[in-house]
Amino acid sequence: MPPVDKTHDNFGLKEPGIRIAPSLLAADFARLREEIERVESGGADLLHLDVMDGHFVPNISFGPGLIEQVRPHSKLFFDAHLMIAEPQRYAEAFVKAGCDHITFHIEVTHEPRTVANHIRSLGASVGICINPTTPVSAIEPVLDHVDMVLVMSVWPGFGGQTFIPDVLPKVRELADRLKPHQRLEIDGGIDPETVTSAASAGIDTFVAGSAIFRRPDPVEAMARLNTLAIEAAAS
């Protein structure tokens, strides 16, 4: 089914700015609707959906079926990160399930423009992702064809990993190169200690799982990350 609210643009917000994207992977799946409602009412900007296929990454998470079930209960912008070997094959299923945005990995395709154009033709915005050791040059052919670049600050496949600071030079390079309408997202090990260095380097969209859903008060944790990021970006 289509998303319940398509008023979003510019990757989730009408104006550039800091945004926090709670990662559903870290939520309590026994109370999924409640978990989503809590972060949405607490001011989340996006809901990050980590999709893993057991091939590109050594783990399996969830698919379009789960997204379709939770979509009617949230007006959040659904930010899907496809950590899968065949993003072009499955993109339509995720858009039909309710995803507003699809990010795919440069490491899985030699034709990133074709994949990006296909996703856009489905009505979703498009992101390209690079792993910690993948250089910015790898996404050069598709950089002008995406709405967002996602930098992995851990190796994809599992939550709760330690932030890799070696990715920050890439973040700075991308922050200097992206256009005003393009967003720069980071995923992996984001917490109150690492969010400041990422924001100072130029990140504007922060995926956080354990640092939100695994805290006693997810809303307070989310607000703290937001405040720290805003302060670091302004300094």
Task: List the main descriptive attributes of the protein structure presented here.
single chain; 235 residues; alpha/beta; TIM Barrel; eight-stranded parallel β-sheet; 8 helices; 8 strands; 18% strand; disordered N terminus
What does this 3D model show about the protein?
With 235 residues, the protein is an alpha/beta fold. The chain has a single domain, classed as TIM Barrel. It contains 8 helices and 8 strands; from the N terminus they run E-H-E-H-E-H-E-H-E-E-H-E-H-E-H-H. Strands 1-8-7-6-5-4-3-2 form an 8-stranded parallel β-sheet. Strand 7, helix 6 and strand 8 form a beta-alpha-beta unit. The longest helix is centred in the C-terminal third of the chain and has 17 residues. It is globular and about 45 Å long. 45% of the residues are buried. The N terminus is likely disordered.
Q: Which stretches are low in confidence, meaning pLDDT under 50 for 5 or more residues running?
A: 1-8
CATH architecture: Alpha-Beta Barrel
Number of strands: 8
Distance between the termini: 43 Å
Task: Indicate how many domains the architecture comprises.
Answer: 1
Highest-level CATH class:
Alpha Beta
The largest sheet, given as strand count, sense and whether it forms a barrel, is: 8 strands, parallel
Radius of gyration: 16 Å
- The spatial strand order of the largest sheet comes to 1-8-7-6-5-4-3-2
* CATH T-level topology: TIM Barrel
Question: Percent helix among the residues?
Answer: 25-40%
Summary, kept brief:
The protein is an alpha/beta fold.
